[in-house]
Automatic annotation (TrEMBL):
Its cofactor is Ca(2+); heme b. One of its GO terms (cellular component) is extracellular region. Belongs to the peroxidase family. Ascorbate peroxidase subfamily. Belongs to the peroxidase family. Classical plant (class III) peroxidase subfamily. This is Peroxidase. One of its GO terms (molecular function) is heme binding. Disulfide bonds join 32-112, 65-70, 118-315, 197-229. It comes from Olea europaea subsp. europaea. Removal of H(2)O(2), oxidation of toxic reductants, biosynthesis and degradation of lignin, suberization, auxin catabolism, response to environmental stresses such as wounding, pathogen attack and oxidative stress. These functions might be dependent on each isozyme/isoform in each plant tissue. InterPro entries: Haem_peroxidase, Haem_peroxidase_sf, Peroxidase_pln, Peroxidases_heam-ligand_BS, Secretory_peroxidase.
Amino acid sequence: MAPIALLPFLILNLAVATAAPPLRPRFYEKTCPEAEHLVRDVIKKNMEREPRSAASVNRLQFHDCFVNGCDGSLLLDDTSNMLGEKLSLSNINSLRSYEVIDEAKETLEGVCPGVVSCADILIMAARDAVVLSGGPDWEVKLGRQDSLTASQKDADDIMPSPRANASYLIDLFRKFNLSAKDLVALSGSHSIGKGRCFSIVFRLYNQSGTGRPDPAIDPIFRENLDKLCPRGGDGNVTGGLDATPERFDNQYFKDLMNGRGFLNSDQTLFTYPKTRQYVRLFARNRDEFLKAFVEGMIKLGDLQSGRPGEIRQNCRVVNSRPVDELM
Ligand code: HEM
């Protein structure tokens, strides 16, 4: 989906991230000491209301950080002169739980206004979603600023399609300083959450234009998927991305080894030799997965654009500027 020729320019931008102070743990220790607790409470409350919100919030980190760094650009609503990322190909009708981030932001603005960036809230929330789903806990680096703009085109160009194969994904992730091992570990986020029939009908009925299903799918699993997603059926019906979609565990990798990956981009990690070894390792050894996953999330969170930013008051809109600053 992404014109790969554009990526070097976008990545270069990430590489020259220098202007902002370095990210560090406990960034808000003095300025908003309760920040991390408060965000976790909001995530927890929302999970009690809707368990899937954990997965939806976790996914936001990937979609924010890959597009011009982790800068909260994903959260900006479109304006009359800016098409943001929310309606881009990979995000429209698919990303959800933006309102959970809004709730966390409102809570923090009530306690320490103008201090904690939306970009940082996303990073804390993505971690908390994993912890509260039974996954590992880790210390996140903070101190990001929120972008002043967003680009639907950049999101369209960069974010991978569920049709992508492992070789494409390895090349894409490498451009973000993420290895094949990071790719497999981070895809382990699909241990939680759901996907739509829209994202898999091609592999059920017409993989690579063959008019046939993807041969890598286990036949019994395929029967179930055919029932869930009949040809010409409702594309918005959802299925679990692994057999335990509310628990952050290594079941996802076991499923891949049995031809029970939901997305093509998942199953291809086992079909392809360079990534298969990591699928095997993580299926066999949960701790290796959790360790590699945390490393991957920290690297993903390190992506920065180096562009000027601000601490937004509302994650959906940039702060208004005094007229003289706009001249
Ligand atoms: C490797 C490339 C990846 C591709 C092609 C991909 C694609 C997708 C797709 C197509 C869905 C289902 C969307 C839908 O049907 O509406 C999905 C869901 C999800 N993705 Fe990924 N993804 C990738 C990597 C990641 C990464 C790196 C993370 C997090 C670090 C992540 C986290 C999630 C989560 C948690 C869900 C479930 C969301 C929910 O239930 O609302 N994905 N992904």
